[in-house]
Structures are given as structure tokens and as C-alpha cells.
Amino acid sequence: MGTTMNDDAVQPKTMGQQFGRRSWAEPWKIKMVEPIKMTTREERERAIREAGFNTFLLKSEDVYIDLLTDSGTSAMSDRQWAGMMLGDEAYAGSRNFYHLEANIQKYYGYKYVVPTHQGRGAEHLISRALIEPGDVIPGNMYFTTTRAHQELQGGAFVDVIIDEAHDPQYEHPFKGNIDLDKLQAVIDKHGAEKIPYVSLAGTVNMAGGQPVSMENVRAVKALCDRHGIALYLDATRMAENAFFIQEREAGYANKSVAEILKEFCSYTDGAWMSAKKDSLVNIGGWLAVNSQEVYDIASNWVVVFEGLHTYGGMAGRDMEALAIGIEEQVQDDHMRSRIGQVRYLGGLLEEWGIPIVRPIGGHAIFLDAKRFYPEMPQDEFPAQTLAAELYLDSGIRAMERGIVSAGRNAATGDHNRPKLELVRLTIPRRVYTQAHMDVTAEAVKAVYDGAAGTCGLRMVYEPKYLRFFQARFERL
Ligand code: F0G
Q1: How far is ligand 1, taken at its centre, from the CA of residue 234, in Å?
Q2: pLDDT, position 445
């Protein structure tokens, strides 16, 4: 793949290349700042111990640069904040809901919209509406909450992503693609009647933010149609996926992110959304479908679990900020600088020989913890260890995406053992500067250079569901 898939304009340059260069910069300027605290090594040592070596359990006040997640951590624009003042907080029929509904219809193209408090609320509704006990749901690599809701309804998730996605070094422009042979094999084995839908995610989070091509979604749709199986999309970072299609797929260079997003969605029967990512808001989500029957079920369940079907757990002002965020997320300049910043950080790490997942994806840089600690067994949680060490070095907070996140096999109770043992440096949108990226890269390098002899961890508390959020560890 090499150089053709990378846009020169958003790659960091070496010193020699910098003469005569034309840099890119963000299409915004800063109007308000939020102070952050620097801590001492002793303070961090105490904080991470109290947090059971789990970065989810740190207090945000004890964090210097927070790269835990890009979820709900974006900076809103002045237009979005102005929209917050236009909240119509009526219990029923808020004007902001109709604005949100209109923008989901306009930019994603689905007919019916059910608002939810965030993504997992929508995952709950779609899983409850479509899954029967004993069903099988094929998808392009699991996501933690998505799979949890599928399993809670008695379904079993089956991974049908292409093999290359499990290899952190493999260069592939669309490493999030579904392997059509694997999908066909699942259909042959279980029968189409046991498969309520195929679960397709844009820029696959657990694979390193890797995109799905338009060609692939078209082919998956055709295969699903042949067997009468529905295709539902996790649209959480689908606008970022659209950017990669524009950059890498033949025939899309002159189409806008907005056009590509809408075309992609047109091959699917509906989508669930964590609006806390692409859509530049701090809270919110939705489910949108084309089937009136599915809508009727979901919009009935939403009143039991989330709120009335015209707010679903969001305040009116939150729906307004989200409606505006949907317009901003598809601006090509915005997307170019968003992904450009992720690539800036990744480019520095690569230049310094730090092992990261290739190619660089949409929302984060993923450190390959197995190659930081080649001697450490997976049962001693290398990625959990690396995230703790990075915090100790510099107050930077990252997230484990390895064996802890993968949880246990629902049937056997053993650890799921993913091939990828990663630490995610997730970049919030419109929040940090290039200097923050420099500081981050230098901290990662310091931890990499000092990795020899690092001890792993032992899990001392393990909650039953989504254990990575609340598990506690001790040093071995
Ligand atoms: N789908 C994907 C691909 C996600 O990344 C997330 C959340 C969800 C669904 C669930 O949405 O958090 O709004 O309930 N991902 C966050 C993350 C937690 O840090 O990657 P939610």
C-alpha cells in the first residue's frame, strides 16, 4: 500500500523537508480554555495505586493529558453552545428533537429516528428488537458494549472481519472490511433464520480505528440480500470512515465526506450511534431505521428504558447541540484536521521506532503492548501495565484494549484472548494542541525506552460485566 494511501499534506515532515513546506492547521481558533493540573511522580504513584492500576478509576483532576477516550470529550463550537440556549425542555415533542430528526434523515438518510442517552442505549434497543435466544450475530470485530447487549439478549457474536485486522503490522487500506467467505460460512453453518442481522461498524474501534470500504459494504449488502438478512451499522465513527473512503477508494476523491457518509448508509437497513464521538457532543445517541416494524418496537421499548420517544434520555439542549454537531462533523476541513492531528502523533512515534498499529486509524494511536513487553505473558496484562506506566511517567491517561477489554467467553468462562494487546491513545476532537501531541509522543518514547524489566499485574477484583471499566489490579 505504502505511500499512495497517505496524504502528504497531513504527514509530519522531517527537518529537511520543512523548507518551503505548507503546513495545515485547524479550521478554528480557541475562545475559552480549561486549566489542567501537572502532578509529581509521587502524586501519580499514589493515584494509580488507589485506582487499582486501572486508568478508568483515576480522578480526572489527577490527569494531565486525557487520552482515555474520544467519547463525550470533544470541544463544542460556539454555534453548538448557542444551540444549548435554544433548548426546548418540553417533555413531549421538543422542537430540538425535530431538528435532530431532520438532520439524521438528511445526513444519514434513514427514515425513522429514536433518540437515546448514548450509544449503548441504542445498542440495547436494536438488540432487544431483533435478537432471539440462540441467534448468531456476525460482525467486523466485537465492540465491548455492542457485544454485551447482543449477549444479554441471548445472542452470540461471531467475528467475520478480515484476518489482516488481527495483525497490527499488516498494511491494508480497509482493514475493517468483512471477509465475505467467513460471513458466508457463518450463514451456511447456522442458517439465515438464526441470523437476525449483520453488525457492521465503521472505522473498527478495537482493530485500531480501521475503515470499511464502500466496495465491501456493497458486497456485504448483496450477500445479506441473497439470504434475506438485515444489515445494521454502528455509525459511531462513520464520518471518519467516510474520510478514509474519500482518501483511499477509487472514484471517491471528488466526493464530500457528507456524500460518502450518505451513500454508505444507503446500503444498510439502519444504524445505532454513539453521538459522543463523530458528532462533537458530550452526550447523546440514537437508533435510526428504515423498517417501520423495527421502529415501532424500538420506539416502544425506548419509553421503558430511556425516556419518551422524542427525547430518549437527552435534554432538549443536548439534542440541539447534536443536531448542529452533525452538520459540523461532515465538513471536509474539520475531518482533515481531526485525522491530521492523529497522524501527527502517530508519525512522531513511527519516526522514533515505537511499535504502533498500522495503518494509523481515525480516532486514536494504538500502541502494540506485546512489543513493548515481549517477555510478559498475556495473563499478566501487558496493555493494562503499559497504560499504568504511561500515566506514572507523565500523567497521560490512555486505555487498555487487550485481554481485559475482551472479557470472558460467555460459555466457558475463560479469558477471551485477543491477538491484539493494545493501548489506545485516543484523541478528543478540537481539544488538544500540537504541543500536547509532542509531549505525549515524548512520554511514550520514555516508557518504551524504559520498558525492560517492567513487572506485569494481577487482577484482584473482576466485575461480571464489561470488566475493564471497574477491574482492579496489583503489581506482581
Ligand atoms: N460503538 C462503538 C464503536 C463505540 O466506540 C462505543 C463507545 C459504543 C458503540 C457505545 O457508545 O459509549 O455512547 O454508550 N466507545 C467508547 C470508547 C466508550 O471509548 O471507545 P456509548
Answers
A1: 9
A2: 98
Predicted local confidence at residue 2, as pLDDT: 37
Which domains are assigned to the chain? 7-66+332-475 (3.90.1150.10), 78-329 (3.40.640.10)
Write phi, then psi, for 185 (nearest 5 degrees).
Answer: -65, -35
Q: What pTM does this model have?
A: 0.94
Pocket test for ligand 1, best of 71, 74, 232, 366 (most atoms within 8 A of CB): 71
State residue 4's pLDDT score: 42
How much is the average pLDDT of 440-466? 97
Are the beta carbons of 425 and 364 closer than 8 angstroms?
A: yes
Closest protein CA for atom 16 of ligand 1: 71
pLDDT over 60 (residue 14): no
Band the pLDDT of 17: cuts 50, 70, 90: low
CA distance 124 to 150: 8
- Ligand 1 pocket test: pick from 145, 210, 286, 424 the residue with the most ligand atoms within 8 Å of its Cβ: 145
Cα–Cα distance between 14 and 368 in angstroms, integer?
A: 24
Residue 204 is classified by DSSP as B
What pairing do the DSSP bridges indicate for beta strands 156-159 and 136-139?
parallel
Compute the average pLDDT of residues 242-252.
Answer: 98
